[in-house]
């Protein structure tokens, strides 16, 4: 069973979204990248469960890909 | 002083005459008299085997090579009888500090010896040629070790039950037939090249300047590492204290640099002045290096076995090069000993291949990760690295992400075929496939008491031991570190790794674990 919750698990989505947008106001892309990274590190530490973080990384990785690419990645991970 | 090849000389030895006649034979030939080859020779020599070492050069080189020797390497040197001079000469250190920018307080620090009460420290810094000298002295005390200086391998031909080498010397060439060949001939291994074997991996696009300088300087005996210091903006730097008032300064240069120009004294001086101010110093050795993480697909090829840099290469961050090589010979020595004495089947060598590859892979993994932190490959990984450093300054939770090199520790083999899986529940202690943790033991140390043969570490156990196993009774802290309760015992391999452990062992259980640890099948007995 997956450790990562993927069903809706929050309220106040618009507030959170706005907060995430505001996080980057007035920043260059480079500064913005750094701020994203900080946020991820803070959240990862809060989650405190490496499996959840790794599953989240996999989900982010796969969600940006076409089905064929996903399969290639998964095959590659299995043979690695 | 430098010789004709332009390699600086630490100690002249002089060429060894070629053997009379144009053929010769040996049971074991080791190619390469660096720290790994000499340690291999000494291990097998101490076990009573006739060993022939071939070294292309006829001197000990004085060059910028390995300087950080880990606790595990010191344990191995102790086992080989040369730990004391190394530790007496070396600079002992345990603490590493990582600085960022112009902040005088470290963003992260670590202790390389988290468990105190062990004979050896986390690390010593010492020039590689001193280690070579001590190993060489150990070898020279044994009549069964024959080191041939200025003997170059020109051809390697696997034959039935052995290897045939063509060797050239100043006064003639000869053929040397050997039952076993151990290639400890470094990153540009001649043996590997002559056999046409693979050496796959990654090259990292970065250059680092090493400036070993002699100067009077006060600093604690610690490893200091900087990200983005004012004296090397946007890059990294590393500082290590060595014996004889020699300091290793290491500056990241970036990829597109003129390497030859970078080591000219007039170009090195500004780095040192920027780092240390207006100090007086003498040049010891300057070089620029790039690095690679590579390994061979297999380390054992019939009767030819690879150990050290010939088999695997890592970046220097983490001190996993020479320490990894010493781990190889530690693993191979006792196995080849048993095979040579006919006490184990030749297939035992296959477990060297498995375990040494596990070690190399862990070293390469750690080294690659450190390198990715040091030299981010994209805007996003640069942002991630900088985010870690910024957070680490104020928040303890971010500090463990800071990676300036994860320093060499012994590698465990949880899946080793030689280990007998636990049949009891253990809440503490050392699992099968991991090295025994040192501890005070009577008036000395546990690892010294284990030595280099099979032992049973027992707490109040009485029973009959199989032949070839020595009993070492442990109490108090040594037993506690092993999680041993009254009546329990550990079977320990000659490289001080745990083979099996029991809460209340039986003689047949010990016998079966011993057979298994020697590569046999316990089911047959």
UniProtKB/TrEMBL annotation, chain A:
Pfam families: DUF2783. This is DUF2783 domain-containing protein. It comes from Neorhizobium phenanthreniclasticum.
From TrEMBL, chain B:
SUPFAM superfamilies: FAD/NAD(P)-binding domain. Pfam families: FAD_binding_3 (PF01494), Rng_hyd_C (PF21274). Residues 27-363 form the FAD-binding domain. The keyword Cell division does not apply. This is FAD-dependent oxidoreductase. NCBIfam families: PRK08132.1. It comes from Neorhizobium phenanthreniclasticum. InterPro entries: FAD-bd (IPR002938), FAD/NAD-bd_sf (IPR036188), RIFMO-like (IPR050641). Keywords: FAD, Flavoprotein. Its cofactor is FAD. Gene3D superfamilies: 3.30.70.2450, 3.40.30.120, FAD/NAD(P)-binding domain.
């Amino acid at each position: 069973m997956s450790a990562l919750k993927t069903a809706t698990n929050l309220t106040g989505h618009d507030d959170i979204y706005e907060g995430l947008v505001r996080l980057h106001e007035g920043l260059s892309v480079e500064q913005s990248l750094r701020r994203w990274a900080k946020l991820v590190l803070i959240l990862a530490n809060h989650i405190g469960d490496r499996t959840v973080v790794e599953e989240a990384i996999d989900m982010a990785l796969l969600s940006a890909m076409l089905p064929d690419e996903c399969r290639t990645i998964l095959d590659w991970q299995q043979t690695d | 002083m430098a010789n004709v090849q332009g390699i600086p000389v630490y100690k002249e030895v002089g060429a060894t005459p070629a053997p009379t006649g144009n053929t010769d034979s040996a049971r074991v030939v080791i190619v390469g008299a660096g720290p790994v080859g000499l340690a291999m020779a000494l291990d097998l020599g101490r076990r009573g085997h006739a060993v022939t070492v071939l070294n292309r050069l006829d001197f000990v080189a004085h060059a910028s090579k390995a300087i950080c020797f880990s606790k595990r390497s010191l344990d191995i040197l102790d086992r080989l009888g040369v730990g004391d001079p190394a530790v007496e000469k070396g600079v002992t250190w345990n603490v590493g500090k990582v600085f960022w920018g112009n902040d005088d307080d470290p963003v992260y620090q670590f202790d390389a010896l988290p468990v105190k009460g062990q004979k050896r420290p986390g690390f010593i810094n010492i020039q590689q040629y001193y280690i070579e000298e001590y190993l060489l002295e150990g070898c020279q005390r044994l009549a069964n070790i024959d080191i041939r200086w200025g003997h170059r391998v020109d051809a390697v031909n696997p034959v039935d039950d052995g290897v045939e080498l063509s060797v050239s010397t100043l006064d003639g060439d000869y053929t040397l037939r050997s039952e076993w060949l151990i290639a400890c001939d470094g990153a540009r291994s001649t043996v590997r090249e002559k056999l046409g074997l693979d050496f796959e991996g990654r090259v990292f696009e970065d250059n680092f300047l090493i400036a070993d300088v002699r100067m009077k300087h006060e600093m604690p005996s610690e490893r200091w590492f900087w990200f983005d210091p004012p004296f090397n903006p946007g890059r990294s730097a590393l500082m290590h204290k060595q014996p004889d008032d020699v300091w290793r300064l290491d500056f990241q240069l970036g990829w597109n640099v003129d390497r030859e120009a970078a080591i000219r004294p007039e170009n090195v001086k500004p780095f040192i002045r920027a780092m240390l101010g207006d100090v007086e110093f003498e040049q010891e050795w300057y070089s620029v290096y790039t690095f690679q993480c590579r390994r061979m697909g297999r380390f054992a090829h019939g009767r030819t076995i690879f150990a050290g840099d010939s088999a695997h290469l890592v970046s220097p961050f983490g001190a996993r090069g020479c320490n990894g090589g010493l781990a190889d010979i530690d693993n191979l020595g006792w196995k080849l000993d048993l095979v040579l004495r006919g006490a184990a089947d030749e297939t035992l060598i296959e477990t060297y291949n498995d375990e040494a590859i596990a070690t190399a892979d862990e070293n390469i993994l750690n080294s690659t990760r450190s390198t990715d932190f040091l030299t981010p490959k994209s805007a996003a990984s640069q942002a991630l690295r900088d985010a870690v450093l910024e957070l680490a300054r104020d928040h303890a939770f971010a500090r463990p992400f800071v990676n300036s090199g994860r320093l060499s520790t012994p590698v465990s083999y949880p899946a080793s075929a030689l280990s007998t899986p636990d049949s009891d529940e253990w809440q503490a202690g050392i699992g099968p496939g991991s090295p025994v943790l040192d501890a005070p033991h009577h008036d000395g140390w546990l690892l010294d008491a284990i030595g280099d043969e099979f032992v049973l570490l027992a707490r109040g156990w009485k029973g009959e031991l199989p032949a070839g196993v020595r009993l070492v009774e442990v109490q108090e802290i040594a037993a506690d570190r092993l999680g041993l309760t009254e009546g329990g015992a550990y079977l320990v391999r000659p490289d001080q790794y745990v083979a099996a452990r029991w809460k209340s062992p039986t003689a047949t259980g010990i016998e079966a674990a011993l057979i298994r640890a020697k590569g046999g099948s316990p089911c047959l007995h």
